[in-house]
Amino acid sequence: MTSLATAQRALRDPSVRHPLWPPLTAGCPATSTDAVAYPLDIDYAYDRVPDDLFARPAAHGLERWAPLLPPLAAPGLGEGNTPLVPLGEDVWIKDESRNPTWSHKDRLNRVAVSAAVASGARGIVVSSSGNHGAAAAAYAARAGLPCAVFTSASAPPAVASHLRAYGATVLTVPGPAVRPLMRRIVDELGYQSVSSVTDSAHTGHPFGPEGYKTIAYEIALELGRAPAAVHLPTGYGELLFGVTKGFQELARLGVTGSVPRVYAAEPAAAGALTEAMRTGADTARVPVGPTAAYAIDCEISGYRGVVALRASGGTARTVTDAQMGAARAELAARGLWCEISSAAGLASLRAHGPREPEGPVVCVVTSSGYKDTATARESHGPMDLEWAEVKALLARRPTIPDSLVEGS
Amino acid sequence: MTSLATAQRALRDPSVRHPLWPPLTAGCPATSTDAVAYPLDIDYAYDRVPDDLFARPAAHGLERWAPLLPPLAAPGLGEGNTPLVPLGEDVWIKDESRNPTWSHKDRLNRVAVSAAVASGARGIVVSSSGNHGAAAAAYAARAGLPCAVFTSASAPPAVASHLRAYGATVLTVPGPAVRPLMRRIVDELGYQSVSSVTDSAHTGHPFGPEGYKTIAYEIALELGRAPAAVHLPTGYGELLFGVTKGFQELARLGVTGSVPRVYAAEPAAAGALTEAMRTGADTARVPVGPTAAYAIDCEISGYRGVVALRASGGTARTVTDAQMGAARAELAARGLWCEISSAAGLASLRAHGPREPEGPVVCVVTSSGYKDTATARESHGPMDLEWAEVKALLARRPTIPDSLVEGS
Fold this sequence. Notes:
Chains A, B: Its cofactor is pyridoxal 5'-phosphate. Two copies of one chain form a homodimer. By secondary structure, chain A is α/β, with parallel strands linked by helices.
């Protein structure tokens, strides 16, 4: 199957279309303003989608969904096809830690690195302290492209090991220096950025979020219907946009009869999309306070988030570190250990509801507990226990560690 | 679909059968000797296996294979259904890091914890410094059972976080004290052990290795045939036994036309199974030297390993830390970051061959790079790079870090 992608389309005005190549990573040249570099997404020849596309089971590798994705020029790692694990009371966890680099970002990077390969980029550049950088580095390595990762000195130690493992060049510079250096790497060395290169708001790669559509496809296939609601950890809103677009496509193609309400869960320490929705703005900028949810503590929102929430009838809400910690502990007690930011979706459901009466609710868990800053910072104390002590320890039934409940 | 399991069967003499319940975790009472507590496996009513069992695609959750597994009384986490990732030249990587706790051990623990639940155990006890403990803790948590994990003070820091996350009681005691304490927990508190409780050799839980059969089922389904050879990291030989048994069952049921040669890859610092094969003994004990492959540095072998190698016509070979490090670097350069012990299978193929001319070769990668002892022990140095330095760094195309190549 080949891609049915036809054009890049301006999100701000879908009647404005650009050729599919090259990827417009700095936003739409026609609809952007001085204040906002508006992003694009990809349009398809929907009338040519094979009738049986959704009749076959899910499979590893985004090529399973090739007609509804941009061309997959970069080789894959068997990404996607993650399980939907029941949590009880018709709440389901889409466990994205089961991807090749153990986060949802593999879906985006299979597509974005493919765009870079197909458009002749000399390398990949990315700014990330965690999942996004690891996924970009893995797909760049598999494609044989060099990869530069700008990361923060405060990135978790295990993530630092992970970034380096794929042979990426890890660059640690002060925050304000990142984007100017990224742009020079793009302009002077011919790399393609899979992170946002604009300053005004989050613009991002036009192809990348298409990869997240496949989360919606897999959920619908597994449930045999669209869920009533989906709760998503939200940073720049690319996951939010992609999942929502996927559900919209399913309804448009007649695969499902409805589109779920999609809820964005942001850390209370930031919350730019919540602010944009509150004020009716296309994007917003907020101060960022301390939070353990470093994967989603973004000071600016992206226009994609607003578009997605308006389309699905959902909204954005914030959750505290304590609420995310409690949700993470709930998941761990059921055998699922996730990064604290990954628990934001469930935290938002538990804190704010609504528990939709009309059907299944899905919370997307984006990443593994191995990515947290607190992970690997404790150690086994030396202990030399006698039987009486062992018995006493087992008698007081252990609880989930405080560090897990409190966040961080 | 319900389980077709009929009995526990003595591996040393398959004509000796015991009822399916209770699980004989201390070995076969009829065939064991003073020197060796011989293990058991599970027999099934093979003549009643549904005709279409292998006609349907793989799916998450071992219930997919319920007829050929013991009863799955413990709830699952969507384990299994991991991808087969091409490495080139008809070599395939079965990526078991894509399981619920990011290792192959989830397959064993879904089955072993189910046996504990079905036989009324009051809790789960396990001895492990890594993957096995995390998986046991996760499945115990999901089943609502307490879990005691004996672990070593030298366990990697990230693994320590992982073990605690599920609420397990982590017990650190000197090595020789572990098994006596485990037996008291079993005898006096009514827990069931999912680790070996015998001193003479590795006996292990009779039900657990059945879970590994599903790796063989998935490989055969994906390739449309049995591979020519399979290379497996080998500690106590439970994975080796389970995968081999799965391929034997496929041939017996007429799903495949042959059984692959199965090769056990042990660290050169240990190599008990290699020693047992060399001397023709049922089990062997060897001194253990220093190695980064802590997941498979076992001083005793299990009779299961000898049984599996004799059945498949394969053999056991050892690989050095340098060879495992090189294999790990080869995988990372292709986008797959694994624990060093996980690269033992590929290391053995590269070091010893044979490259079977007659068909596909599968190397099972058991676990994620996050489990390594060296992981999370490096950090980002503070750096404040100018453009000229960034450009120079990118000009010397980075290589895989030395730590990855050298092992640990």
